[in-house]
Specification:
The protein is an all-beta fold. It has 1 helix and 36 strands. The strands form 5 sheets. The protein has a 17-stranded mixed β-sheet that branches. A 10-stranded mixed β-sheet has the order 1-2-5-8-10-12-14-17-20-21, with no helix packed on it. A 4-stranded antiparallel β-sheet has the order 33-32-35-36, with no helix packed on it. It starts with a strand and ends with a strand. The N terminus is likely disordered.
Length: 357
């Protein structure tokens, strides 16, 4: 039944076939065991939608309109068939939602906060995306997409930290095995905590996670604004942080960087000489190893000049001028952790990430 609460609220229970207009301050779905709302046409909602039913299924098209921010929330998630956002003040979420038909962003933003938006494998996503029309994903909530197979999937996300910034991610899968596959994206408007670049880097990083995917190859493209750039964009290289080390992707240009990946983690951009710290990038005639409290630098033909050690926040914590001996020992009595060792020669700078026990 439909029960009017005062002048401004509607309490909805059971199985409903609703006329295409709701003009209330708040629409509340009760805690019925199951709630199905079937609509012929479009229901225009200029109100909060609060769902307390554990199995809420809203069929038809629900369009949030107006110029006052509204909430989609409650104690339980909501599954929409079609969802349209045409509210210049935006929508905020306090519950998870899923869209199985079409998610159409016409005007305004959807602020995920700590909730997730999932777009089904057969659903479409449309809108003229911009800083004013996007999904804000700088909290713990993610924009998730079910991945049906090879193809391109857009994640029109952005943030409102410091300024409103549209920073989408595009994933193009060329191969893989997809079993109930889902990929989620959110982002932070700050320097990645493991990025030790000093002069050139992005004040932004994206976190991608996935499930139900294996043996896949994917081209990931990340877009950022000029305000995200510290230093010179021409010195930026995309990079992937796997929790232990960086993998360098393609060079950044024209507010994007990309790369081919086969796993998900954190992504940002910075100085290649800092991010390229894998052992195989070291020349054969210079070796950097850790032996107890000593860092041993061995060289044959390279003329070494100086060594510096940085923590993963980019702070210089040790430096020493090197001799021309074949072996230089640096007594580095520091707590167990990862560090970046930079060795300067007369021709180049060599970097390596080390772990001191």
């Amino acid at each position: 039944m439909i029960k009017r609460l005062f002048k401004y609220s509607l309490l909805l229970q059971g199985i409903l076939f609703l006329c295409p207009t709701i003009n209330a301050q708040q629409v509340i779905v009760s805690d019925a065991a199951e709630f199905n709302l079937a609509v012929a046409g479009t229901v225009d909602i200029n109100a909060d939608l609060i769902n307390n039913s554990p199995n809420a299924l809203l069929l038809g098209t629900f369009a949030f309109s107006g110029n006052t921010e509204h909430e989609i929330g409650g104690t339980a998630p909501i599954e929409f068939n079609n969802l349209s956002i045409n509210n210049s003040a935006g929508i905020r979420l306090s519950t998870d939602i899923m869209v199985t038909g079409n998610l159409d962003l016409i005007a305004g933003t959807v602020n995920l906060l700590n909730s997730n938006v999932t777009i089904g494998s057969n659903a479409s996503l449309s809108g003229s995306f911009s800083p004013n029309v996007m999904l804000i994903a700088d909290g713990s909530g993610q924009l998730k997409r079910e991945i049906a197979g090879s193809g391109t999937y857009l994640f029109p996300v952005g943030d409102t930290s410091n300024l409103t910034d549209y920073s989408p991610v595009s994933l193009t899968f060329s191969s893989g095995t997809f079993t109930n596959a889902v990929v989620g994206v959110n982002l932070k408007n700050e320097k990645h905590p493991e990025n030790t670049s000093v002069n050139d880097y992005l004040n932004k990083y994206w976190t991608l996670s996935g499930s139900g995917l294996s043996d896949f190859s994917c081209t990931a493209t990340f877009t950022y604004s000029n305000e995200d750039i510290v230093g010179s964009e021409s010195n930026l290289w995309g990079a992937k942080w796997d929790g232990n080390q960086w993998t360098v992707l393609n060079q950044a240009a024209m507010n994007t960087f990309s790369g081919t990946i086969n796993s998900f983690s954190d992504f940002t951009a910075g100085e290649k000489k800092v991010l390229s710290v894998e052992d195989e990038l070291l020349p054969d005639d210079v070796k950097i190893t850790v032996e107890g409290n000593n860092i041993i630098i061995r060289s044959d033909a390279v003329k070494l000049e100086r060594a510096e050690i940085y923590n993963l926040s980019g702070q210089l914590i040790y430096s020493k001028d090197l001799s021309q001996n074949t072996v230089n020992e640096l007594n580095f009595n520091a707590r167990p952790n990862y560090y970046i060792v930079k060795v300067y020669s007369d021709k180049q700078t060599i970097s390596k990430k080390i772990f001191k026990n």
